[in-house]
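Hi R.,

As promised on Friday, here is the backbone we talked about, encoded as structure tokens. Could you run it through your design pipeline when you get a chance and send me back a sequence?
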């Protein structure tokens, strides 16, 4: 059994319509629908991801996996003075997980750790259906993923990169605390 989303993606649906929607009329005739533009943006990030690769000397690296579907993202962050200066990722998986990681990698550059955590929370809010989060301009290209919230199985895919980023920051914090503790214990400050 296929749902309406599957029919739209497969290009089947209403008779006489390639997209599964009734033909547009009036001013909307020939104009791309907002959903189509968002779908194109997601595919653009999936086919030509931003910041895919590896950093020479990352401050932290974390591998995230979605065990329910096999998606994976390896994220590397370069953090200088509490600011994310660069980010790279590698991964395999569906268009949602990889496009989300690509969009995230663009948005994180130049953000403080606190701003990055706040952005992750707002994205999570959006993935759980918060319409206000979906309207925030600071979310940038991520707003194209707002419709994913209607498909609970895909929400984990969209959140994979973000959860990985939060784990990386937690690991980095733990490493910094451990380094400080080791310096104190050895008599160095």
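Update: got your reply. Pasting your designed sequence below so it's all in one thread:
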């Amino acid at each position: 059994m296929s749902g309406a989303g599957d029919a739209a993606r497969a290009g089947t649906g209403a008779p006489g319509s390639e997209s599964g929607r009734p033909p547009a009329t009036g001013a909307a005739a020939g104009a791309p629908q907002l959903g189509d533009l968002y779908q194109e943006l997601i595919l653009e990030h999936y086919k030509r991801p931003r910041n895919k690769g590896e950093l020479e000397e990352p401050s932290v690296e974390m591998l995230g996996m979605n065990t329910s579907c096999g998606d994976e993202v390896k994220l590397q962050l370069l953090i200088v003075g509490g600011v994310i200066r660069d980010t790279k990722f590698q991964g395999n998986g569906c268009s949602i997980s990889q496009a989300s990681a690509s969009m995230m990698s663009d948005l994180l550059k130049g953000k403080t750790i606190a701003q990055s955590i706040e952005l992750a929370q707002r994205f999570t809010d959006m993935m759980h259906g918060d319409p206000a989060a979906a309207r925030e301009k600071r979310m940038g290209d991520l707003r194209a993923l707002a419709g994913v919230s209607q498909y609970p199985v895909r929400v984990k895919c969209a959140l994979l990169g973000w959860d990985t980023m939060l784990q990386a920051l937690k690991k980095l914090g733990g490493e910094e605390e451990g380094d400080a503790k080791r310096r104190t214990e050895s008599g160095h400050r």
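One thing I noticed while checking it: Strands lie at 60-65, 72-80, 83-92.

Thanks again,
M.
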